[in-house]
Amino acid sequence: PLGLKENVLPTQRSSLSNAGGNFFMAGVGFSFIFSWLLMLLVLITFLLGGNIYMVICKSWQSQQLFQLLDDPGLIPGLNLSDLLGQEASSTNFSEMYRDCQQDAALWQTLHLDKSVSLDELLNISQYSEEISTAFEKMNITLSPISLLSQTQRDLLQNASREALPPNFNLSLDQLHQNLTKESLLDSAAELEQLAEKEGTDIKESLQADASELKKVNEELQTSFSGTLKHLEKDIYSVQSVAVHLEVQTKDTLDTISETHEFLDREMANIIKNETLAFVELLLDFFKTYISWAKSGLTRDVARCKPIAQTLDNVEAITCDYIVDSLNAFWFSLGWCTFFLLPSIILTVRLAKFYRRMHIADVY
After folding, report:
1. Nearest 5 degrees, angle CA 77-CA 81-CA 87?
2. More confident residue, 304 or 163
């Protein structure tokens, strides 16, 4: 536009205007030379991006890709049921993908229960039956049990017959008497009577001694009265128990004899039953552990949601970023190629008004 002047004859146009027209024609020439490469690039990217989008992305979203992979004739030799040792065809890619999206364990996803039977593998009932049979056949022999020897039994019987309850009456009478041999209060009274008969110096000393005796008597009564009452109570208790000593000794010996007979008769069965009960308790622990292990193996171990998430991420990266960008690329180049023909026609027409002509147009 800078070199174009409307009033100038076509044969007298400037070099700037002529250069613009030459550039127009050069663009047309380059378009004819290299346009086939642009068309080929559009074709290749269209075939690549379009087919990838339709075959992978579109079929992934509609789950048709997994149905295609589930076709046993698609890939010869690829059969999940045969690879997992399952007789019936029950495992396929689409079902595995749905289970993994729900965060199921591989045991459920691959249907491994049809290949490996945990109930038979971890069944301990057969062992419990063998243990019970072995305990029933077991013969327990114990050495003789002696709770009391005959000598000890005779000593107890003789002691119960010959021992008489001790006479506590004398001890009880002594408890009710004064703690001292002579009454301290009587001695204090005698000292006071002597003090009245004697002189002043001796009188004060005797009165002081009498007061000291009364004080000692009061302290003795205070210190020993509770202890003496407790001792008296214990004496009465011992006296009441000693009367029944012979009967209790006889009852004790009879109980010991019954216990001895019971142990001789039932000890072997008791040991066998208690041991069997302990073994059954241990088997219950094992059953609980096996139940927990089966539950963990079939429900918690090796959850496959990360696999489904990884596949979804790969699909998102491939389709949303790579394939969509590739399709946008060929789509843009396709429109450029489409507008190339009208641009060539327009360029040829425009070049006429810019280039310097050798012969002026009669019009």
Report:
1. 115
2. 304
pLDDT at 2: 81
Give the whole-angstrom CA distance, residue 177 versus residue 173: 7
Q: How far apart are CA 288 and CA 285, in angstroms?
A: 5
pLDDT in tens, 325-359: 999 999 999 999 899 889 999 999 999 888 888 88
The CA-CA-CA angle for residues 39, 40, 45, to 5°, reads: 100
Residue 273 phi, psi (nearest 5): -65, -45
Q: Among 196-210, 310-324, 341-355, whose mean pLDDT is lowest?
A: 196-210
For residues 317 and 251, the model is more confident at: 317
The tokens for 228 are 């003496």
CA distance 234 to 97: 88
**What string of H, E and C letters represents the secondary structure of 180-246?**
CCCCHHHHHHHHHHHHHHCCHHHHHHHHHHHHHHHHHHHHHHHHHHHHHHHHHHHHHHHHHHHCCHH
What's the DSSP call for residue 303? B
Using pLDDT thresholds of 50, 70 and 90, give the confidence band for residue 288: confident
- CA–CA separation, 328 and 154 (whole Å): 115
Distance CA 51, CA 64 (A): 15
In sequence order, the 6+-apart residues with CB closer than 8 A to the CB of 142 are 267, 268, 271
Query: Quick check: helix, strand or coil at residue 105?
Result: strand
Q: Residue 110's CB: how many other CB atoms inside 10 A?
A: 22
Span between the terminal Cα atoms of the chain, in Å: 22
Above 90 in pLDDT, residue 40? yes
User: Which structure tokens are listed for 49?
Assistant: 């991006």
Does the pLDDT value for residue 194 go beyond 80?
A: no
Q: What is the pLDDT of residues 151-176, one digit of tens each?
A: 777 776 676 666 555 555 555 555 55
Beta bridge partners of 303: 105
Most distant CA pair in the chain: distance in Å?
190
- The answer to whether the beta carbons of residues 359 and 9 sit under 8 Å apart is no
